[in-house]
Amino acid sequence: MKTGLLSIGFLIISNVSFADCKVELDERLKDDLNLTYQQFDQTYDAGFRLLEKSGCHAEAAILIKRFISHNNSKESSLTWHLAQMEGLAGDYQQAVFHAKKSIGSR
């Protein structure tokens, strides 16, 4: 019984977190695509790092991909951080792909 209640509680918390992550991503997409590379990638209280701090790893990966595309960015650190966020989100295939791409682009 306790295990079942614990599982239900975890699902409810997970769904709330997912909804919060989506809201945070939507907020970040409004302005963060126009940040400089330095502001987006190298500042700990801006860009994808705000999503990462909230545990929104999949959303941070989405934001990084959109930033790269929007700005035609070539910085390997963006690709590396994308790999990190994908790995933390459990998308290991894409994480490995982007990690290798990051290493190869140096």
- Residue windows where pLDDT falls under 50 for at least 5 positions: 1-16
- Tally the helices: 6
Rounded average pLDDT: 85
**DSSP strand count:** 0
In percent terms, what proportion of residues is strand? under 5%
**What's the alpha carbon Rg, rounded to whole Å?**
15 Å
Overall shape: globular
Q: Helical percent range?
A: over 70%
How far is it from the N-terminal to the C-terminal residue, by CA?
54 Å
Helices and strands, in N-to-C order? HHHHHH
Largest sheet: none
Structural class: mainly alpha
Throw out a few tags for this protein.
106 residues; disordered N terminus; mainly alpha
What is this structure's SSE topology?
Layout: H1 2-31, H2 37-42, H3 48-53, H4 57-71, H5 76-88, H6 92-104
Helix pairs in contact: 1-4, 4-5, 5-6
Q: Could you characterize the architecture of this molecule?
A:
- By secondary structure, this protein is an all-alpha fold.
- The protein contains 6 helices and no strands.
- It has helices at residues 2-31, 37-42, 48-53, 57-71, 76-88, 92-104.
- Helix 5 (76-88) runs antiparallel to helix 6.
- The longest helix has 30 residues, at 2-31.
- Residues 1-16 have low confidence and may be disordered.
